[in-house]
Automatic annotation (TrEMBL):
A GO term from the CC aspect: cytoplasm
Keyword match Protease: no
Localisation: Cytoplasm; Nucleus
Domain CSN8/PSMD8/EIF3K as annotated: residue spans: 27-159
Species in which this protein is naturally found: Anopheles arabiensis (Mosquito)
Name of this protein: CSN8/PSMD8/EIF3K domain-containing protein
GO biological process terms held by the UniProt record: COP9 signalosome assembly; protein deneddylation
Keywords: Cytoplasm, Nucleus, Signalosome
Keyword Transmembrane helix in record: no
Length: 187
């Protein structure tokens, strides 16, 4: 639902930019469009927008520079830098988008941890999700993940949900697919 609203907002903002006299729009429009691209993980368009923004507007605006830091962290897949950059006092016209981006990133990271790890230390989980120990306990409780007490740092054991079972393909089906592939390569 929110993703669709942001996609629509992006289309409107892009249209305003295209129709602007001289192709230059306000800092607010650039900020909103940049934030919308970041939320949608459309890093290519965010990069090209950054290049289109006049240099004098970028240099004089700390918020745009901070958004660029968020972009660089996402581009480099640097979780720690992302949280450092996004924890900023955003202006009212982008604060909701940036908050939603942070929440979305955090939820996607937690889901990825659940699929990729059989166990993870609490301090690593905290760094990857930007959560405090209390928040980690609430998250683990809501996902039915186990926290092994006694050790420091504590160990978190994610549990796969029923719908996350790996797909099992039988040997006969794999042999048939391999035969089809080899046959395709030979012809």
């Amino acid at each position: 639902m929110l993703s669709e609203k942001i996609r629509q907002l992006t289309l409107v903002l892009e249209k305003h930019e295209l129709e602007a006299p001289g192709g230059i729009v306000s800092i607010q429009l650039y900020s909103e469009l940049f934030a919308a691209y970041l939320y949608q993980n459309d890093l290519a368009n965010a990069r090209f927008l950054w290049k289109r923004i006049p240099q004098n507007m970028k240099a004089g605006n700390g918020e745009l520079e901070q958004m660029y830091k968020v972009y660089v962290a996402l581009w480099n897949n640097n979780t720690a830098a992302f949280y450092k950059a996004i924890n900023h006092d955003w202006s009212k016209h982008v604060s909701e988008l940036m908050f939603e981006l942070k929440e979305k990133f955090q939820q996607e990271t937690i889901a990825l941890i659940g699929r990729a790890y059989s166990s993870i230390f609490e301090n690593v989980f905290a760094e990857m999700t930007n959560q405090t120990p209390d928040m980690i306990e609430d998250t683990c409780k809501s996902l039915s993940w186990e926290i092994v007490p006694g050790a420091y740092p504590r160990l978190i054991i994610p549990k796969r949900t029923v719908d996350e079972k790996p797909i099992v393909v039988g040997a006969e089906a794999q042999l048939h697919r391999l035969t089809d592939f080899v046959s395709f390569l030979e012809n």
